[in-house]
């Protein structure tokens, strides 16, 4: 692989979304089941809206998924608690190794490509203390559809002014890995949970469990 730049998913790849469970625990019982359902519906709604061609941004999708989850588990929350739950997505902490590993992966240009809105991404990266590592922060808002639609991955290719085969895409989400690989990116799967590979007929070029492992396995920079 002749990798000239690297493109990262954000939630679950660089930022530990399990931390949102802590906020859930202050509001609802059985926080683990609550956040798992919320996250599941959050992703389902992105896929369904893409297929229906009825785009709403990720903040709206996240709020709708939260409302479904509240109704599904049969609880209620105050307006203040509702805002606190949504606000948790703006301050998700990074995994412990992320800042140092990103420093080692430069001087390649680094970019974020995420389902999140620009507001969510900028706030999240600033709160995590890693905004300065990235030359570009790209939201699907620019193309009004969600991963794994090819138009999302094409956004990174266009904005970085590099052919797709020179952009290493990094994600912890196996479905995102499959979408990026099908698009034509070389892909590194950040398999933090040691999950089995998806049966979608495409396979990652690298499999690592942490960003530190990626530092050691990433292709060298070529002139």
Please describe what this structure looks like.
The chain has 223 residues and is an alpha/beta fold. The chain has two domains: 5-16 and 92-217, HAD superfamily/HAD-like (Rossmann fold, 3-Layer(aba) Sandwich), CATH 3.40.50; 17-90, DNA polymerase, domain 1 (Orthogonal Bundle), CATH 1.10.150.240. 45% of the residues lie in helices and 11% in strands. It has a six-stranded parallel sheet with strand order 3-2-1-4-5-6, with helices on both faces. The chain starts with a strand and ends in a 6-residue tail after the last helix.
Concise account of the structure shown:
By secondary structure, this protein is α/β, with parallel strands linked by helices. The protein has helices at 20-25, 31-52, 58-73, 79-87, 98-105, 118-128, 150-160, 174-183, 211-217, and strands at 5-8, 110-114, 136-139, 167-171, 187-190, 206-208. Helix 2 crosses helix 3.
Topology of helices and strands:
Blueprint: E1 5-8, H1 20-25, H2 31-52, H3 58-73, H4 79-87, H5 98-105, E2 110-114, H6 118-128, E3 136-139, H7 150-160, E4 167-171, H8 174-183, E5 187-190, E6 206-208, H9 211-217
Parallel strand pairs: 1-2, 1-4, 2-3, 4-5, 5-6
Provide tags for this entry.
single chain; 223 residues; alpha/beta; Rossmann fold; DNA polymerase, domain 1; 2 domains; 6-stranded parallel beta sheet; 9 helices; 11% strand; globular
CATH topology of the largest domain: Rossmann fold
Q: Just name the CATH architecture of the largest domain.
A: 3-Layer(aba) Sandwich
Q: What number of domains?
A: 2
Task: Calculate Rg over CA atoms.
Answer: 17 Å
Distance between the termini: 13 Å
Q: Total number of helical segments?
A: 9
Strand-pairing-aware structural class: alpha/beta
Strand content: 5-15%
The residue ranges in which pLDDT falls below 50 over 5 or more consecutive positions are: none
What is the CATH C-level name of the largest domain? Alpha Beta
Q: Describe the largest sheet.
A: 6 strands, parallel
